[in-house]
Amino acid sequence: MSKASQEAQRQLDRIVALGYPDVADISAASFRALAKPLIQALERHDLGESILLVPTRELVSPESLISRTSINRMAGFTTMPPRDIISFLPQDGFEPPEGPFYLVIEPHTGTAYVNREPDVARKLIDSDDRLPLTLEEGLAIATQHPEWLREKNGFNLLGSRSADGRVPSIWMSQNAPRLGSVWPNSKHTWLGNAYCRARRGISLFH
Q: Which run of H or of E encompasses 7?
């Protein structure tokens, strides 16, 4: 197995163990089968270990996923109602690739953009030829790499917005991951603005 396929398999094993098939309302075997083509493609296209395996919201709705994250057995939480969470939609140009699963290449919590207003950070990320992460991608970081929230920084997810302009954010609160939101003209010393280099769906490997 390539390093990339091994890493994707590890991440798949983790979200299966955390009950994602139950959220998707399918069996664990069926859930794994949906990811198999993408993981097999990584055998032929090794993208390295700096990847995130992300299920789309059509497969796994995002509103309950923060509670499946944890740090030192402290479960993630949110004070937002489910209707608020599902209102954060990908912005034009940052929609996920087709398929039940896709990959985020070289994800980062955006330390270089700490304490920047989301609208300002968005321009900086664009000028650096990077892509802002979406809500689903931020939840994938908190699920696969919760320690980043403590070792690096919390982060805004500028690739998603609600109709009223808010941006979803994930940070450490009460020693646990927390999902919340910020206004586009606000800045916080503990929040970076997360980004990646690229997104790859199964169709891009053919």
A: helix 3-17
Instruction: Return d(Cα 1, Cα 4) in angstroms, integer.
Output: 8
What digits encode the pLDDT tens for the residues 150-206? Answer: 999 999 999 999 999 999 999 999 999 999 999 999 999 999 999 999 999 988 665
Of 32, 47, 61, which Cα lies nearest the Cα of 135?
61
- The amino acid at 78: T
* Plot region of 80 (φ>0 → left; ψ -120 to 50 → alpha; else → beta): beta
For residue 132, give both structure tokens: 């802002």
Tell me the per-residue pLDDT of 51-101, one tens digit each, with 9 for 90 and over.
999 999 999 999 999 999 999 999 999 999 999 999 999 999 999 998 899
The DSSP-derived string for 19-83 is THHHHHTS-HHHHHHHHHHHHHHHHHS---S-EEEEE-TTTS-GGGGGGG-EETTEE-EE-S-HH
* Global model pTM greater than 0.90: yes
* CA distance linking residue 15 with residue 69, whole number of Å: 10
Cα distances from 9 to residues 41, 102, 120, 197, in angstroms, run 12, 13, 36, 21
